[in-house]
Amino acid sequence: MDKFVTLKSIAIPLDRSNIDTDAIIPKQFLKSIKRSGFGPNLFDEWRYLDHGEPGMDNSSRPLNYEFVLNKPEFRNASILLVRENFGCGSSREHAPWALLDFGIKVILAVSFADIFYNNCFKNGILPITLSKSHIDELFKVSSNQKLEIEVDLPDQRINFLVNKFFEFEIDEFKKNSLINGLDEISLTLEKTQEIKNFEKSYYDLYQWLK
Amino acid sequence: MGRTLYEKIFDKHLVSSSDDTHLIYIDRHLIHEVTSPQAFEGLKINNRQLWRKESIVAVPDHNVPTISRDEGIKDPVSKIQVDALNENCQTHNLLQFKMSDERQGIVHVIGPEQGLTLPGMTIVCGDSHTSTHGAFGALAIGIGTSEVEHVMATQCLIQKKLKTFKIQVSGKLYPFITAKDLALFIIGKIGTAGGTGHAIEFCGNAVESLTMEGRMTLCNMAIEAGARAGLVAVDQTTIDYLKNKPFTPKEEMWSLAVKEWQTLKSDSDASFDKTININASEIEPQVTWGTSPEMVTGITQAVPKLSDIHSSKQPDFQRALKYMGLVENTPLSNIRVDKVFIGSCTNSRIEDLREAAKFIKGKKVNSSIKLAMVVPGSGIVKKQAESEGLDKIFMESGFEWREPGCSMCLAMNADRLEDGERCASTSNRNFEGRQGKGGRTHLVSPAMAAAAAVHGHFVDIREVN
Ligand code: SF4
User: Fold this and answer.
1) What is residue B73's DSSP assignment?
2) How far is A132 from chain B (nearest CA, A)?
3) What's the pLDDT tens digit per position in A183-209?
4) B196 touches chain A (CB under 8 A)
5) Which of B33, B344, B352, B427 to mutate to test the pocket of ligand 1 (most atoms within 8 A of CB)?
């Protein structure tokens, strides 16, 4: 996994709550058995005016220019700004895969759905939870100008405008995994002996599960 | 101090801890065709083995056609996924209920039905509605594909401890009020983020009186309340249900197991991070009117008025009404539907079908309905229903009787709503586009869906019955 330390980008203000994983990547695109290639269909139903199906040439589809992701200034942005309960619904990891494939590396929200939040870290995306008033302020700034944000994971803060910053909380284990680009499976496999020991006493106790 | 049911299950699976990050052992791993291929691929790339093959059970459900299976899967992209699952199961020699197997069905229906879901287990599946299995006093959590791969390779999951949330439902549910109405009512109360970060334990008389199928419906929708898991304590109802299921322990092992299962309840002095009380007698048949399960109210009510909605939620409210093609203050019973879907891991078990059939018997689907369909949760449910003649009741009234699968719950196969079509659905999500682009979903119980099919619009099942 790629390491994540700091990142600077314009933030894309997507002013909605309860954005579910069906909206992030509609189900017809889940039929791929790969992890990549979902980016062009990120937010497909909002981004295009027609109905998308796998295998279509996305570059020739009619775009919805009202939708924020289609504004030229946000095409290469890596930070997404949203409101509450982002990523609710299905547990599909295709949602973070699609965000990542588009280039999103950081999501700022008031809250995230649990499974989605977890899935982000496994893919090198940093989901940041900020208070409602801080998110409000970021939306306000972004309504008047391009909001450029510098995310500093080691210091757990985001810097914006001149000298403005917000601090954020993050679990130490997750932070460490991101900064060092650690693969969790390798980490757990280092505990092979412990798992084996556990299994031995576990199946002695709960024999019917053997 | 006493421990909650969640804590008991968590503790007995604890392999190691560092600070507040824990490694817990996983007993059962259910897989389906949509969220497993990339995990198998990951294992292969990194040259890793499956830790415990016996823990895995596979079934294709999301993509399978619900019309005749004889011609296989027509959609080439769906076929690739189902074929990939077959291939992976074959390579690793895993237990799979293939599309042609009578035991095939929705992953959350077949687990309990086969006795693969047992009390006290930790159960994972790359699917959010894994919470369903919590009805058995198991800790069942939905995970993403990276975690699927992690469990395959290590038999463990990295977890933070969840907070605990007790939802006590006292009193009695009135006739015709089902577990689905209870689930929707609770979500309406606490909101779709109300359970975020929590494991919800449902308890109280009204929950104890539910059948196992009702408890599954309730726990199924815990995820829609934002919770990671839903749980119900083990009691005699649980044990009676499991007895003699194909994969449950037998004879001596059964007695040993039952002895342990009987301890699977929260201690009376256990403390929860959050508790709410619900009075079951307040609940009437529920119908969602918006694009989130929390946008729900009783059938005798109307779509709320803008002025009743908190200002911070008004933009979402307006967007939802626009999408749903509704105006504020419309009585729910005035809403006409185009299609009716009885199915999904929430409501496709035998009791659900019986409940709908009981109402439908001798009546006709309204001529204004374009399609009414029943999709049983599994081949076993289908067979049981057919042996009771339910298929005939449905077909004579004008319902289509289909093969088992997820079907129009998420419209990954050919079953879907067209733009603007309105559906009375027994599934669990009414998100924009969930049942097809532009499709409008109203979540209801099976009997309410059946009644809407007959009348062409929502009606109060208590009155028309
Ligand atoms: S029936 Fe619907 S909610 Fe249940 S597993 Fe299938 S798609 Fe998911």
Assistant:
1) -
2) 11
3) 899 999 999 999 999 999 999 999 999
4) yes
5) B344
- Which of B83, B157, B192 is the best substitution to test chain A (most A C-beta atoms within 10 A)? B192
Cβ contacts from A onto B, under 8 A: 171
A-chain residues near B21 (CB < 8 A): 171, 173
B10: enclosing H helix or E strand: helix B5-12
Asked if B27 and B55 touch (Cβ cutoff 8 Å), the reply is yes
| Residue located nearest, by CA, to atom 6 of ligand 1 | B406
What string of DSSP letters covers B128-143? GGGGGGGGGS-EEEE-
A126 beta partners: A106
Distance CA B195, CA B9 (A): 19
Residue A7, SS3 per DSSP: strand
Res A30: pLDDT: 86
Q: What does the mean pLDDT of chain A come to?
A: 94
- The answer to whether B28 and B120 are in contact (CB under 8 A) is no
Is the separation of the CB atoms in B336 and B457 below 8 Å?
yes
Q: Give the single-character DSSP code of A50.
A: S
Residues B373-387 as b or e (16 or more Cβ within 10 Å = b): bbbbbbbbbbbbbee
**Shortest Cα distance from A114 to chain B (angstroms)?**
6
pTM: 0.92
Q: Using one digit for the tens of pLDDT, what is the confidence trace for B216-275?
A: 999 999 999 999 999 999 999 999 999 999 999 999 999 999 999 999 999 999 999 999
- The count of residues in chain A is 210
